[in-house]
Amino acid sequence: MQKIRSSEITPEHVYLSRRRFMRLGALALGSTALTACGGQLGETLAGRPAPAAPTKPADAAADTLGIRRDEFGDPANSFETISTYNNYYEFTEDKEGVAKLAANFKAEPWKVTVGGLVSNPRTYDIDDLRRKFDQEERIYRLRCVEGWSMVIPWIGFPLHKLLAEVQPKAEAKYVRFESLLDPNQYPNQRPLSLYPWPYTEGLRLDEAMHDLTLMVTGLYGKPLPNSNGAPLRLAVPWKYGFKSIKAIVKIELTAEQPKTLWNTLAPHEYGFYSNVNPQRPHPRWSQATERRIGESGRRPTLMFNGYADRVAGLYAGMDLQANY
Ligand SMILES: Nc1nc2c(c(=O)[nH]1)N[C@H]1C(S)=C(S)[C@@H](COP(=O)(O)O)O[C@H]1N2
Ligand SMILES: [Mo]
């Protein structure tokens, strides 16, 4: 796999408010954490050359597996790249360090509870989910809010099939997702961690019901690697990658918009909706372009990450430039 220089990405972690730092002032924060976070300028602000025409195919290693392409014709990144370049903060903030730390993660047995405002609350074993719902391949783009992207051949089933089974009540308006809390397995969930664990995310019910919204159980036809959120994660391809929560243990239907980890940490940087929008810069960097991992140069970012024809209607009447 091609080595990815850390200078080529703009970390989304850790925006931490000054107040939070003061409160935790005694904590010996590594200086890396500080500089890696707030200190760095966005890729596009760092005096880089204008976007160059990307070279294709994205990833030489993809050839050996037979190239899969997304619906826009872009080749998928290799299994190697997808499973070794990760954002998974429960393990580490180092993208290339996740796979090693996650090697012994215990992804089975695994239970997922689905409850809240539903008529038929259920607890599923991961195997129940694999057996019960047809597993299909969906080759989606993943656009991280930091300004890089990949093409990933996921295996999974649409979330709406699961929701149909538990039957949301009329009052249910949102879906809340929760990741595993287990400091014994996640080194970065140590006591006094600066993150409000567990990782949580949320969708409006109609977003959750959209056919593009996928419950992911695998990639490249194999069970999901630990580094990608085994055994169960979400893929919401028109939103920034942090919405696609990993290692899900709980799904809850709610009447109110749920709190989410990134929105709690830095509400002015990471909105609840966080739809990919090249015209709306992150407060610290532009979102107009992205670096496809494996390509040279940058390519333009597309509205809703290219899925506008199918999802724009969900936001009719909403101001897309606002920070929701
Ligand atoms: N539980 C959990 N889910 C998570 C994250 C995380 O740190 N913890 N990182 C998010 C971010 S920022 C991105 S870009 C994607 C990365 O997914 P990948 O590593 O499979 O490419 O996972 C998202 N889901
Ligand atoms: Mo991300």
Describe the protein.
By secondary structure, this protein is α+β, with helices and mostly antiparallel strands. It has a single domain (6-313), classed as Oxidoreductase, molybdopterin-binding domain (Sulfite Oxidase, Chain A, domain 2, Alpha-Beta Complex). It contains 10 helices and 12 strands. The chain has helices spanning 18-23, 31-37, 62-65, 79-84, 98-101, 126-132, 159-166, 205-209, 261-265, 308-311; strands at residues 111-116, 122-125, 136-143, 148-158, 174-179, 200-204, 214-219, 222-223, 233-235, 248-254, 289-292, 299-300. Strands 3, 4, 7, 8, 9, 11 and 12 form a 7-stranded mixed β-sheet that branches. The chain has a 5-stranded mixed β-sheet with strand order 2-1-10-5-6. The longest helix has 8 residues, at 159-166. It starts with 17 loop residues before the first helix and ends in a 13-residue tail after the last helix. Bound molecules: the ligand Nc1nc2c(c(=O)[nH]1)N[C@H]1C(S)=C(S)[C@@H](COP(=O)(O)O)O[C@H]1N2 and molybdenum atom. The site of the ligand Nc1nc2c(c(=O)[nH]1)N[C@H]1C(S)=C(S)[C@@H](COP(=O)(O)O)O[C@H]1N2 has 18 residues, from loops.
